[in-house]
Specification:
Elements lengths: L8 H17 L4 H4 L6 H13 L8 H11 L8 E4 L4 E4 L3 H5 L12 E2 L10 E4 L2 E5 L1 H4 L2 H10 L5 E4 L1 E7 L7 E3 L19 E10 L5 E11 L2 E8 L11 E4 L2 E4 L1 E9 L6 E10 L3 H9 L6 H7 L1 E9 L8 H8 L7 E3 L1
Antiparallel strand pairs: 1-2, 2-7, 3-6, 4-5, 5-7, 6-16, 8-17, 9-10, 10-11, 11-14, 12-13, 14-15, 15-16
Helix pairs in contact: 1-3, 1-4
Length: 342
């Protein structure tokens, strides 16, 4: 929250005028910071504010950003244009279905397979006259989307969830670079030396109020000479703090966890299937129960008490999904980031 009392009166007035103009033009304030898709007079006003705060030791550019973020409301029923990392988008409720009615047929919660020859970047993939945009919960994981893109081939199919409210503009593609991130594990242990057909592993650190635990569970099961690996992270983080609720497409997923499923050959050398998803437990009671009473071994119970929302899916009948251990590590990686044009 911005303490407006600490902002000079003239600066507050200028920022309020800029916020009102942003709402009139239906553009996010971030457009102004990058000089993108904003009227010249509004851009000039904003640039003047940024220049003026250099004379105020107690006012930072972050104060300006926060003020505008809190005071600008974008009308999702009207068109808005702005940049993501790798491409600019035009945004409006259900704009994808308005432009391409046939896409309604593939299902509200289904994944869209990306054609092998289609261009793909961190935010979306080529589709007819536009780019279809990945749901934010997938494309915010910078390294994962890049890795998934590199794995696409004539023997490996990639399917992803798309946003219904954004269309990418082909003539605006660009290349971005990741400046900072937190590193996580990039491999998973192989099972060659293990006997048996079922293993359950639980890694936990802290316990919190109501019995919630910062833990991750691993279940290995051999079925018909293939290993099925399931991983569920019960307190997923996309930054420093954990938030119990998130959004996929335009739907809220309450009390979410991160979940991964893989199918490997008997020696764990080849991977035939890999998907990453969010699980939602809907109520606090169910979420607490998941932490203190249920385990991945109780698969039937977990399916009944949760919903599953896939973020990506890789399939290969020949087992050619390379680096599957690294992909699993990237999916569960904690990260913070910033992206710039290069």
């Amino acid at each position: 929250m911005v303490d407006e009392a600490n902002l000079p009166t003239r600066l507050q007035n200028d920022l309020q005028e800029i916020a009102s103009r942003c709402e009139d033009e239906n553009i996010p304030p971030s457009n102004l910071d990058h000089d993108e898709f904003s009227p010249d007079d509004l851009q000039s006003k904003y640039d003047g504010v940024i220049e003026s705060i250099e004379d105020h030791k107690d006012v930072s550019r972050m104060d300006v950003w926060n003020f505008l973020a809190e005071n600008v409301r974008i009308n999702s029923s009207d068109v808005s244009k702005y940049y993501l990392w790798d491409i600019a988008v035009v945004s409006k409720n259900n704009i994808v279905f308005d432009r391409y009615p046939s896409l309604k047929d593939f299902g509200k919660n289904s994944l869209k397979e990306i054609p092998e020859q289609a261009d793909m970047n961190k935010n979306g993939f080529e589709f007819k006259d536009h780019y279809l945009i990945l749901c934010s919960r997938l494309c915010q994981n910078y390294y994962l989307t890049g890795k998934l893109n590199r794995l696409r081939s004539d023997t490996v199919d990639l399917s992803v969830p798309i946003s219904y409210s954004k269309l990418g503009l082909p003539d605006t593609t660009r290349t971005t670079a990741l400046l900072a991130h937190w590193r996580g594990p990039e491999t998973i242990d192989k099972l060659r030396s293990r006997a048996g057909h079922r293993f359950f592993i639980q890694k936990a650190t802290e316990s919190y109020k109501y019995g919630l635990q910062d833990k991750t569970e691993f279940l290995f099961e051999k079925r018909d000479n293939r290993w099925h690996l399931q991983i569920e992270e019960l307190l997923p983080r996309t930054g420093i703090m954990y938030s119990p609720h998130t959004q996929l497409r335009e739907t809220e997923i309450r009390y979410n966890t991160r979940y991964l499923h893989a199918i490997l050959d008997e020696n764990c050398d080849r991977c035939f299937h890999l998907d990453g998803a969010l699980r939602g437990y809907d109520t606090a009671k169910k979420f607490v129960s998941r932490h203190i009473e249920e385990e991945l071994r109780n698969s039937k119970s977990l399916k009944e008490m949760s919903s599953r929302h896939k973020l990506f899916k890789l399939d290969s009948s020949t087992g050619d999904i390379a680096d599957f251990g690294e992909i699993a590590g990237l999916f569960f990686k904690q990260y913070v980031f910033s992206a710039v044009r290069s």
